[in-house]
Amino acid sequence: MATVTQHPRAGRNQHLRIIEAILFATAEPVDVAHLKRFLPEGTDVAGLLADLRTNYANRGVNLVEVAGKWQFRTSGDLSYLLRRDKVEERKLSKAAMETLAIIAYHQPVTRAEIEDIRGVAISKGTLDQLLEIGWVRMRGRRKTPGRPVTYGTTEAFLSHFGLNEVSDLPGLQELKGAGLLDANLPPGFDIPMPRASDDLLPDEDPLDDAETGQMPLEMHLPDADGEPGAE
After folding, report:
1. Cα–Cα distance for residue pair 27/182, rounded to 1 Å
2. Whole-structure pTM over 0.70, yes or no?
3. Do 100 and 135 form a contact (C-beta atoms < 8 A)?
4. For residues 39 and 75, what is the distance between their CA atoms, to the nearest angstrom?
5. What is the pLDDT of residues 74-123, one digit of tens each?
6. Can you tell me the distance from the alpha carbon of 169 to that of 172, in angstroms, rounded to the nearest whole number?
7. Cβ(194)–Cβ(105) under 8 Å?
């Protein structure tokens, strides 16, 4: 009978294939101990990984070591082909929507005036979010002690809500007809007519050059400890 002897490289190639298959099938990086479970005892796993990394060095995916574990990853010079930019939609909170409505109808309005109308303190992040989105802007400073910042809406606000100017916002009867207001409103309840002009009012000072395009100083102060009902 003829004796068939397996070439010594045949076993090594099979071990390479096994490691390759395991790495492709596993979503997370794999450590050497895990790979050894699928190979004969005494297999040079470190040497096999080194060979496999060399084999994939110039290909679309590379074998890389991550925190002591191994994983196939897209080659760094090709990663731009697989990148996808996605716009993430974020729903405004009820507090932010109420604050936006107050600014739209009562502008120019200060933070203290917003809190007085809502009957609750505004959390630091509410105005920050509206400023970041670009629907609200700093108009100027009120000519009162402390010179608080006044806020108004922007062109981006008009564009998003399909308005030609802020005075096109729905009035009391339109809001009631749309079911957005209770039919049994308190006596004397009214909705102010939004001001369409972006010009500063007589009781407003212009912002300083350093303040233009920046967040107001008061927005960077931490909320007072124990402030109840801040929204």
Report:
1. 54
2. no
3. yes
4. 28
5. 887 787 777 777 777 778 888 899 899 899 998 999 999 999 988 888 88
6. 10
7. yes
